[in-house]
Specification:
Helices cover 39% and strands 15% of the residues. It has 290 residues and is of the alpha/beta class. The chain binds nicotinamide-adenine-dinucleotide.
């Protein structure tokens, strides 16, 4: 029997409805709209597309987005000053510095400067440490989207073997910790993993974030497994393709996210969910936000 399709668009609709209600309540409480500042350095086309999509989704929610574009050659101190100003701005609840930064700007500047209470994409040193230690924390939006899809689809994690393919700071590594904290047994694979299939075949839950179209084929998937495809590659014709060979894997898996229409639908929403949580400024008092 073909896999159940985990429809990101449908799940996103439910999440959007929940968040819209929360945004209204937060605006009422604050006496102003919840505020998100997006900081871009230079005019990288992918960043432009992403921030435009964040702004569109925020608009629907009634969250006020401010976009700040710094010159591509801004000095480290200029970027630091921008983040410090946003840290001090009471109308800004969340700050999203768009990564990657140009090569002359170490990511550490952002990771060290951003106020952890406004770090709604979980990139600060404090957030990374909180996640590692299983303290309440903001987390990167993409792994949060993976968990949201699994939870809303009632896919059990406790005691299951979760295999994560990809070990980046923004997806694979935080996802591995989030799955571990949900009591899964976690294996992390990466580009130097030998015989990838021997690991993926053991997965009850397989999450793939490698950026390699077609990496995961049906022969690499345990029958009945839940497969979440995080990968997004833009083809020459502008269409999107994931890391999982959908047509073959759908015949073997128990559940599968499509690309497009899967994880990508939830990523922005997780950012806004965390922005709403940030508007309570209660992270330090222990409100779990992931
Ligand atoms: P990255 O390039 O930073 O990391 C890729 C990871 O995959 C690395 O750890 C690497 O070791 C591993 N990898 C590469 N080739 C591999 C192989 N053949 N076998 C096993 N592991 C391999 O990428 P990233 O930023 O983590 O993004 C990964 C993918 O997820 C990309 O396609 C990206 O576009 C996509 N993405 C999607 C969303 C979304 O909202 N759906 C958000 C962020 C990233």
């Amino acid at each position: 029997m073909p896999a159940q399709i985990l429809d990101g668009r449908r799940i996103a609709q439910d999440v959007r409805d929940d968040l819209r209600r929360q945004a209204e309540a937060a605006a009422h409480r604050l006496g102003r709209p919840v505020g998100l500042a997006v900081v871009r350095v230079g005019a990288d086309p992918a960043s432009l597309v992403y921030s435009a999509s964040v702004a569109r989704t925020s608009d629907v929610m009634g969250i006020a987005t401010t976009s700040i574009t710094l010159d591509a050659d801004v000095a480290p101190d200029g970027l630091r000053a921008c983040i410090l100003a946003l840290n001090a701005d009471d109308a800004v609840d969340g700050i999203l510095p768009q990564l990657p930064l140009p090569p002359h700007l170490p990511q550490r500047i952002v990771a060290e400067t951003i106020d952890p209470r406004k770090d709604v994409d979980g990139i600060s040193l404090r957030s990374a440490g909180n996640l590692f230690l299983r303290f309440p924390s903001f987390v990167p939006s993409t792994p949060a989207a993976v968990l949201e899809i699994l939870d809303r689809s009632h896919i059990p994690l406790r005691g299951r073997h979760a295999v994560v393919v990809g070990a980046s700071n923004v997806v694979g590594k935080p996802l591995a910790f989030m799955l571990l904290h949900r009591d899964a047994t976690v294996t992390v694979c990466h580009v130097y993993t030998r015989d990838l299939a021997q690991w993926t075949l053991q997965a009850d839950v397989l999450a793939v974030a490698a950026g390699r179209p077609g990496l995961i084929t049906a022969q690499m998937v345990k029958p009945g497994a839940a497969v979440v495809d995080v990968g997004i590659t833009v083809r020459h014709d502008g269409t999107l393709i994931g890391d999982v060979d959908f047509d073959s894997v759908v015949q073997v898996a128990g559940a599968l996210t499509p690309v497009p229409g899967g994880v990508g639908q939830l990523t922005n929403l997780m950012l806004l969910k965390q922005t709403l949580a940030a508007s309570t400024r209660s992270l330090s008092s222990g409100t779990p936000v992931s």
